[in-house]
């Protein structure tokens, strides 16, 4: 049976009371919830992303299962944790033969498209149209992979991805069939190269510093002290902070890829500051503060172009008449450190990387401006897509559809705790120790099992997570409770046995 006929048959059988909803999934990379206006950001504004929150639902406790790029994407496709879908670290290759929500929706007659960052090594399967970046991709003159081969596109990657997505919506899809569009940005992933429209946004401004910028890593396990993602020590001035001259090797390589006029925009934004830095490089706390300001300035400028992109897509949906029957989701593959604990990057189970922004607009279903405090996760997205489309959810998926929450209802058996597991330990980049853990939203237990150490945090009393109370007798009951819950979740999720080091 042809795909369109499958959809028609399902509708006639009462598959849905109305036409199946379209889904536009807008996915960014490393976009911290602290850098989203709708989450109360004090460092930037995101008016277009906020449009989704204002007309939909904001999830305040959306946790990722494994805070790193590729594994998050595999989790979303499969609705399964890393140990089940086989993609534990960025060095893995996605098994494209396994079931995914995309295959199931495609088989039911949905048109499916994947455009932007893929980062799963194997080619996309289950998509009628795909146009993806190789690996991390690059910001300027990005290369794309298609079924027909590779090509280089002129321009800035956020704009190119948006152009491709809008072209598919306008010209390539069939108007009589529902669709799923996965529009996945590279930004604001490292190396934080803003587009020419926003490169000068932060000039002359001072970005507020987080309380823990000068964290001393006391009162915790060794893992925080040994991680190599400190703003003060582990950033490369040329590649991370854009401190270079146009005639330097880095400058020549960079400007070779950029369009005409970009060099002048970058010179106007940075040349004076760069000259001062190279003439007298800051040291000590001054270096930390300088690096933080330049890092955040570039990061937020990358976010600004993503926000512009969201506005373009929302405007098209409104103008084309598609908005009323289209679910729009904005999410990131995980959170990110914006100077908290003196860090950039993610990986740890601490709040800034565990939590990711999740905003959902679904006209007629989601109450505008609503907020959900229940624990949601990226492992729930596949189930949500299928449920919204009226399709069955495979029993081996490990998340749950968010549809009841989106309708303002919380099932009695909704999860009260959440399991996390990070696999990419040393000597991998940033040398963050492998760990697993459980959180109930207030109390969080983390097991750094390869070094035999534990942490326990009370987020109400210590929201910045700077004092582990694992050995505090006053928290012995919570320690015991969460250890039992950790074991229960590992059994329920069928997590393979962990070779843990002796406790120390």
Mean pLDDT value: 95
SS-based structural class? alpha/beta
Helix fraction by DSSP (H/I, runs of at least 4): 25-40%
In DSSP terms (H or I, runs of 4 or more residues), the helix count works out at 14
What percentage of amino acids are in beta strands? 15-25%
Shape: globular
Describe the structure.
- This protein has 504 residues and is of the alpha/beta class.
- The chain has helices at 3-12, 47-54, 69-78, 82-85, 101-107, 157-172, 222-226, 249-257, 262-279, 284-320, 351-354, 381-388, 403-406, 476-492; strands at 22-28, 57-59, 62-63, 111-117, 129-133, 143-146, 149-152, 179-184, 326-332, 358-361, 370-372, 376-377, 418-422, 435-439, 443-448, 453-458.
- The chain has an eight-stranded mixed β-sheet with strand order 5-4-8-1-9-10-2-11, with helices on both faces. The chain has a four-stranded antiparallel β-sheet with strand order 13-14-15-16, with helices on one face.
- It is globular, with a radius of gyration of 23 Å.
Set down the secondary structure blueprint.
Blueprint: H1 3-12, E1 22-28, H2 47-54, E2 57-59, E3 62-63, H3 69-78, H4 82-85, H5 101-107, E4 111-117, E5 129-133, E6 143-146, E7 149-152, H6 157-172, E8 179-184, H7 222-226, H8 249-257, H9 262-279, H10 284-320, E9 326-332, H11 351-354, E10 358-361, E11 370-372, E12 376-377, H12 381-388, H13 403-406, E13 418-422, E14 435-439, E15 443-448, E16 453-458, H14 476-492
Parallel strand pairs: 1-8, 1-9, 2-11, 3-12, 4-5, 4-8
Antiparallel strand pairs: 2-10, 6-7, 9-10, 13-14, 14-15, 15-16
